[in-house]
Amino acid sequence: MAGHRTFAAFWDFMSRREPAAEREMRSRVAGGVSGRVLELGVGVGSNWVHLPEGVDYEAIDPDPHMLSRARRHANEQGRTVTLHEAPAEKLPFEDATFDSVLVTLTLCSVRSQARSLAEAKRVLKSGGTLHFAEHVRPGGFRGRLFDIAQPLWSAIGGGCHPNRRTEDAVRASGLVVESLQHSRRNGLPVIEGVARKPAG
Hints:
The protein contains six helices and seven strands, in the order ααββαββαβααββ.
C-alpha cells in the first residue's frame, strides 16, 4: 500500500492538538465555501467541523493511510462524507462540477502545484471559488535555508515542501485572486485567501 503510514499517524495526533490560531484559520477558510464543495487533500478530516451546514461535500486524498483515518473519524462523528483516493493532479470529476474547491496545507505536498491548480480550475464552475490556506517559502536568507532543508523535510514530512512559492502558483493558474492575507503559523509564513474562476 502506497502512502505515508507514519506521517498519517503523526498528522492525526497533531490535528487533535491544533492551537487556536490554526483552528481559527481553518474556520475562516473552510467556512467560506458554498454549494457543491470539493476538498483537495482531506487528510484526517480536520476541516469538517468548520464547513457551513448544507454544503454538498466530497474530498480526495492520494494517501490511503490518511483516508483510512478520515473514514474512521467520519464514523466516530456520525458524519456521511464521500471520499476518493486520487491525486490533485488528476481529479476524477467532470469539468465545471463544483461551486467551491477547498485546499488547506496541501499544495505544499502535491507533486505539481501547476497541474493541481489547473485541475481545480477545470472542475470549478464558471465563477466558482478556490479557498486556500498554505504555508509558503520565506524571503531572504531564511528562504535559502528552507531550500537547503527541503529534501530532508520532504522525506520526513509526508512529501511536504516548505519552500514553495504558492502565491505565485495561484496567480499563474488563471484564477483571479480576490482576497489574500499573510500571517505566520508555527514560525512559517502562511497565506490564506480566495481566488475565483473567471466567468465565461
